[in-house]
Design a protein that fits this description.
- It is an enzyme of class 4 (lyase).
- Belongs to the GCKR-like family. MurNAc-6-P etherase subfamily.
- This protein is of the alpha/beta class.
- The chain contains 14 helices and five strands.
- It has two domains: 216 residues, Glucose-6-phosphate isomerase like protein, domain 1 (Rossmann fold); 81 residues, Helicase, Ruva Protein, domain 3.
- Helix 5 links the parallel strand 1 and strand 2.
């Protein structure tokens, strides 16, 4: 239980945050027609990409550092509480089917554990010690990258994760939506996407959440591009774990090679359904075993393997 003095200090801190600011001009939004509220909300969301654009150099620098470490076997770890934590877990969970990442290669930590994804555990956000314990349980080290996510930039769990990760020698990124945040200051790479006050005062699942999702999309997607998980704009490492993804895999091989369907089916069958291997086998005119060897020697980069096959 926090004291009255602690509560007053926290309130004063929140009063300084852009994401918590009250907007008098929206004080009677509940009296507007549904369509008008939707128009106002849509107009608010339209400002988010411009706010992200101001941080692109910082985002790119962070991605280069993350990709460098992941190329030598490191992991990408997101850490946050509440909405921020859920967005990190979401982004991490989408990497295996999209990019065929290994289990544990991209990890989402949320204050309060997996149950906090569906049941509020907002009190867990107040513990820096919990964040340190969660990172220690993963065995985070110098080859890893830890991205702390917090709209306010003050959430103890996110700040604690970044501070502890930095002590462990990991690359650290602090993603927040306020300037001069403790999270950005604690991280090697501070990213502050200032989207302004929310439509509903303090509801950072809105513009701030949208901004965080955009940045996390960039971090994971561009990192995977740098790691050779794509060929052009094709997801050649897609994991064909269901009928839709198997159809997508065949379509990707077709787009990459222009080969007839029988040749595509034969290449996929010979390569045990591995999209990237099938493409290399067709374009490089090599068998499945040779395609696997060339991709291994090129650290999974299809363009480099294709050059080796053609050379």
């Amino acid at each position: 239980m926090t004291s009255a003095a602690d509560q007053e200090q926290l309130r004063a801190q929140l009063d300084t945050l852009t994401t918590e600011a009250f907007r008098p001009e929206l004080a009677e939004i509940d009296r507007l027609a549904t369509l008008e509220i939707a128009r106002v909300m849509n107009g608010e969301d339209a400002a988010v990409p411009a706010a992200v654009a101001t941080q692109l150099p910082r985002i790119a620098a962070a991605i280069d550092g993350i990709a460098e470490r992941m190329a030598r076997g490191g992991r990408l770890v997101y850490a946050g509480a509440g909405t921020a934590g859920r967005l990190g877990v979401l982004d991490a969970s989408e990497c295996p089917p999209t990019f065929n990442t290994a289990p544990g290669q991209v990890v989402g930590l949320i204050a309060g554990g997996p149950a906090a994804m569906v049941t509020s555990a907002e009190g867990a956000e107040d513990s820096k010690e919990l964040a340190a314990a969660d990172l220690d349980a993963l065995g985070v080290g110098p080859d890893d990258s830890v991205v702390g996510i917090s709209a306010s930039g003050r959430t103890p769990y996110a700040v604690g994760a970044v501070e502890h990760a930095r002590r462990l020698g990991a690359l650290t990124v602090g993603l927040s939506c306020n300037t001069g945040s403790a999270l950005a200051a604690a991280a090697e790479h501070g990213i502050e996407v200032v989207v302004g006050p929310e439509l509903l005062t303090g509801s950072t699942r809105l513009k701030a959440g949208t901004a965080q999702k955009i940045v996390l999309n960039m971090i994971s997607t561009i990192t995977m591009i740098k790691l050779g998980k794509t060929y052009g704009n094709l997801m050649v490492d897609v994991r064909a774990s269901n009928e839709k993804l198997r159809a997508r895999s065949r379509r990707i091989v077709s787009l990459a090679t222009g080969a007839p369907d029988p040749q595509i089916e034969a290449a996929l069958a010979a390569s045990d359904g591995e999209t990237k291997h099938a493409i290399l086998a067709i374009l490089g005119q090599v068998d499945a075993a040779t395609a696997a060897r060339l991709l291994s020697e090129s650290d999974g980069h299809l363009r480099a393997a294709l050059e080796a096959a053609q050379g």
